[in-house]
Amino acid sequence: MLDPEEVRKDFPILTREVNGRRLVYFDNAATTQKPLQVINAISNYYMYHNANVHRGFHTLSQEASQMYEEAHEKVAKFINAYSWREVVFCSNTTEALNIVAYGWGLWNLREGDEIVLTVMDHHSSMLPWRIIAKLKGARVKYVDITDDGYLRYEQFEELISEKTRVVAFPIASNVLGTINDARRIARLAHRVGAIVVADGAQSVPHIPTDVRELEVDFLAFSGHKMLGPTGIGVLWGRQDLLESMHPFKVGGDTIKDVTLDDIVWHDLPWRFEAGTPNIAEGIGLGVAVEYLTRIGMSNVREHEKTLVEYTLKRMRELEDVEYYGPRNPADKTGVIAFNIKGLNHHTVGSALDLFGIAVRTGMHCAHPLHYRLGLKGTVRASYYIYNTLEEIDYFIESLEKIISLKDSLRSKPAKEVCTG
Ligand code: PMP
């Protein structure tokens, strides 16, 4: 069992006040807060070990290199990779997905090939393939969702054909929270020899991840969404595929040797980590995954499920609240997108801020999904290990107050209405 009150002691930022109220941080799908262990690991690195990696024989450089490599090993263990060499550090999920599109897609796709994406995709997963498709004359097809936010699996069967070379999708939606059946999709794609690229930005931080069980070929995720620092992300890939790929960015550290006629790429993962990497951030991510492992990812998942179940139950009591995505908490992560009928999502977001509650509003880098749902935007509350049922009670009470002030909020800015 996870005790959020114990966890909170590691997060100084949660003692902050915002607009005179204790901060309630419900914007975890955008980025999570960082525990002292991660913050201290980063400052410890800069205070006592800082040097460039892989370039020096001096002691500090060797220490920094070892710490940075160990961080790869920790991440590999966290996702049950076969080897740490399959773990490429980059800046974030967006970069990881671009590495695949430009490193595999650009070199392997031909005119007439097909790429199957979904309307649920985050732009970071969708747009690189759309650009590559344009460059190579390939065609993009989209799997739709049901009205309650599940992927329409029968469409994968219809759309995947001998022409399909790539299937990309999110393991969990950043808007609806829907947890998709990666293995089912991967098996359909592999029947025709397509590669499977999974966006794990909203799954790896929240549900136990075993790349061997997922059966996908690539998995991308971001450190900053799982207690780690910004500027560090991960591309996990099947070793044979990574070995067959060309680096997306090239330069220092990507090579074993260069002559004027030839380039010999470096061993994995270094050939994909061009230039001086984000060393401190990588080390910080290693500590973040150790922290999550100590808590236990099954406990993280169960905690979020409890929070979601409670929120949906409380939200159903509010007539004016409409929420989107699966109704069954077993099928979603700790992400709840909703609207208050008759109020703009940004108005609700700024009113909640006056109560000290941080949520995200807008289309959350998933415009096609919002258009599919007929929405101009949503308010998104997203949970993590330090959120509590008491915070949800306060959130619901605040929503009730906002609903009671609805008429005034329609005509005046939230700041003028939600005082006191
Ligand atoms: N995919 C999904 C599903 C996401 O939620 C996000 C972050 N909002 C990303 C990709 C992109 O992550 P990053 O901004 O860290 O590259």
Automatic annotation (TrEMBL):
Pfam families: Aminotran_5. It comes from the Archaea. GO terms for molecular function: cysteine desulfurase activity; pyridoxal phosphate binding. GO terms for biological process: cysteine metabolic process. It catalyses: (sulfur carrier)-H + L-cysteine = (sulfur carrier)-SH + L-alanine. Its cofactor is pyridoxal 5'-phosphate. Its EC number is 2.8.1.7. PROSITE patterns: AA_TRANSFER_CLASS_5. Keywords: Pyridoxal phosphate, Transferase. Residues 24-395 form the Aminotransferase class V domain. InterPro entries: Aminotrans_V_dom, Aminotrans_V_PyrdxlP_BS, Cys_dSase_SufS, PyrdxlP-dep_Trfase, PyrdxlP-dep_Trfase_major, PyrdxlP-dep_Trfase_small. Coiled coil: none annotated. It is an enzyme of class 2 (transferase). Gene3D superfamilies: Aspartate Aminotransferase, domain 1, Type I PLP-dependent aspartate aminotransferase-like (Major domain). Belongs to the class-V pyridoxal-phosphate-dependent aminotransferase family. Csd subfamily. Catalyzes the removal of elemental sulfur and selenium atoms from L-cysteine, L-cystine, L-selenocysteine, and L-selenocystine to produce L-alanine. This is Cysteine desulfurase.
